[in-house]
Amino acid sequence: MTRRTAFLAFSLVIAIGLLGLQSWDLALGRIERSAIRAIEERTGFAVKSLERAEIALLPLPRISLSKVVFAQRDGAVAGEAARVRAYLRLMPLLTGRLGVSRIDLVAPQLDVAVPAGSDGVTDWLSAPLAELEKLRSQSRIVISSGVLFLRAAGTVQSIVRDVNIVIDERGPDDPFGLSGSFTWRGVQSDVSLLWPVAGSATKAALSANSSLLKLRFDGTRAGPGEPVVNGTLALSTPSVPQLLDWFGEKSRISTALGALTLNADLQLKPREASFTNAMASLDGDRLDGVMKLTDVDGRLALSGTLAGASLDMGRLIRRLPLPAVDAADQSPLDLDGWTGRDIDLRISVDAAKLNGARLADVATYVLVKKGRFETGLLRATAYGGTVKARFLAVSAPGGVDVKVQAGLDRVDFGQAGADVPQLPRLSGTGGFQLALDGAGKTFDELLGAMTGRAGINLRQGEIGGIALAELVRRAERNPSQLLRDWHQGKTPFDTLAANAGIANGLLVLTDAQMNGTNYRLSLAGNASLRTRQLDMRASLASLSGSLRLPLVLKGSVDGPLFDLESEAFLSPTGSSGNTAVPALIGR
Q: In this structure, are residues 16 and 8 in contact, taking their beta carbons and an 8 Å threshold?
């Protein structure tokens, strides 16, 4: 036997001897009273009942209570455990007293009372943590295989399973600390918390790790009398919508976001979080600035100003669950689903992409209030010109009041069309203006109530898919060749201008002309916003005045018919009558 082994054996003999000198009353009643008093002093829980109590001295002195029912003194937390073990300190035990160093709650079921209507983790944990903060000291508490029920007025709001948490021992003025894991809403998470309960300028830290969230916060708290926390935050998630859904936050706007990484200086105040020197990465697009998250009467509000080098705006918009603008959809317009939280975000980037279009020097914004949604482009340059846009939807007695404004100025449509294949086959430099205003409870009502105006003005361009100039030349030279396919090729123009008024969902052309080197095209008629049907007539005339060809433009906006009328006439200048085009026309 070594000297060290001999020394340990000798110490054990002495300890057992000292224990033997004490007049221990091992009656069940005294064990229960001593164990209950020690647990209540070191945990803040009041023991309501238990089945039996046992004491064991080896290998470590401990008291074991079976089927224990307990509750916090204010009733915020109540529950029961299959077994509660209180591990005793050796030195107090040698003098005949019970000193608890660690308490194990085995397979506990805990009920936490939460405010009715609350759905946030902060509300759920505030009462239990406040009760723990009242303790001057606390034993090490180990919770294994626990289940946590969050109840409001007797109704379960949420369940936390597989709770395996260690709450650190602490003395007066020591911070509250815990670490461990749990499963909430199907996601297993590891967590570590250090939270000051007394003193000033005390360290505070939080880390969480799950498949949906990686979070790290390090900072200091000023103290209970001045509950302000300052520190640095690092957060990342592969999916913002899934993360918010995990926390019970339903937001249609958040579906625009994907993976997010956020690093910032964070200041926490009651119902307010301020992010300064913030660096946010949205699917690799970096934005820097400041943000603030506040809680006003239970309504969350996010505000901020961000700037960056680039942003894929088209990707954000494509992810949104935007309803199709379809008059056949008779379901009520739902604005409340888009305005559940207040948002005031201003974003500026050097370059942006929007469904293939390339924008520069972009300033955009999103402004959301209860019953009001607004977004737009304050400024942007594109293809040699400028772009502005605004969309506003407001709850109204008649349903939803919608305003749409858009403007392009000095834009090269040919360059834009090379990046955006969805644009009509149109080139030229000029502008476009649109202003719409309407209200309705459904898309059918909304489109049928639209009023406003629209206009386009281009110069030195061409239209693809038709060859009107060639059609005029054929008609002048040989009318019998008129029906040769002119729905191919291009029509160059010197100027193109069209203006329209919109009333009660009907667009009416008031002035529409296109002029080329040998022709002039005039267009008149209307288009229904509800049915998306065109009903227009065109007149194609040669500049020499020797002929006029009537054309028709009608049918669906997605695939309209543009062709010669079935009975077209050539009208030579100065002729007293009309000469019929051969019967081939219109076959």
A: no
Alpha-carbon distances, residue 314 vs 236, 319, 583 (angstroms): 23, 9, 50
Peptide bond before residue 59 is cis, with ω within 30 degrees of 0: yes
* CA-only gyration radius of the chain, Å: 38
Residues 503 and 510 sit within 8 Å (Cβ to Cβ): no
Compute the distance between CA of residue 165 and CA of residue 105 in angstroms, rounded to an integer: 10
Buried b (16+ CB within 10 A) or exposed e, 247-264: eeeebbbbbbbbebbbbb
Torsions phi, psi for 240 (to 5 deg) = -65, -45
Whole-angstrom distance, CA of residue 92 vs CA of residue 430? 91
Choose one of 131, 155, 172: the last residue of a domain: 172
Across the range 450-460, mean pLDDT stands at 97
pLDDT tens, residue by residue, 113-152: 777 666 555 565 666 566 666 666 677 888 899 998 888 7
Pick the range with the lowest mean pLDDT from 54-63, 180-189, 305-314.
54-63
Q: Supply the pLDDT for residue 285.
A: 95
| Strand residue runs (E) in 245-326 | 260-269, 272-282, 285-296, 299-312
Tell me whether residue 205 is in a domain.
no
Q: What is the pLDDT of residue 571?
A: 44
Question: Across all residues in the chain, what is the average pLDDT?
Answer: 83
**Residue 20, domain extent:** 14-172
Residue 218 lies in a domain: no
The whole-angstrom distance between residue 171's C-alpha and the CA centroid of its chain comes to: 42
Q: How would residue 514 be classed by pLDDT, with cut points 50, 70 and 90?
A: very high
Could you tell me if 487 and 466 are in contact, meaning their C-beta atoms sit under 8 angstroms apart?
Answer: yes
pLDDT value, residue 201: 61
List the Cα angle 427/428/434 in 5-degree steps: 90
Q: Is the dihedral of CA 107, 113, 114, 117 positive or negative?
A: positive
Looking at 81-85, 122-126, 299-303, 351-355, which range is the least confident one? Answer: 122-126
501: Cα separation from own chain's centroid: 38
Give the span between the Cα atoms of 333 and 443, in whole angstroms: 7
pLDDT in tens, 371-407: 999 999 999 999 999 999 999 999 998 899 999 999 9
> H or E element: which one contains 90?
helix 90-94
Kindly state whether residue 90 falls inside one of the protein's structural domains.
Answer: yes
Long-range CB pairs of 416-424, under 8 A, 24+ apart, other chains included: 416/357, 416/382, 416/383, 419/356, 419/357, 419/358, 420/355, 420/356, 420/357, 421/356, 422/355, 422/356, 424/463
User: What residues form DSSP beta bridges with 457?
Assistant: 431, 497
Is 3 part of a structural domain of the chain? no
Q: Which of 172, 199, 225 is the last residue of a domain?
A: 172
Which one-letter DSSP state was computed for residue 372?
E
DSSP H helical segments within 272-328, as ranges?
313-319
Question: How far from chain centre, in Å, is Cα 349?
Answer: 20
Question: What is the predicted pLDDT for the residue at 362?
Answer: 97
Q: What is the DSSP track for 396-439?
A: ETTEEEEEEEEEEEEEEHHHHHHH-TTS-SB--EEEEEEEEEEE
Number of domains comprising the chain: 2
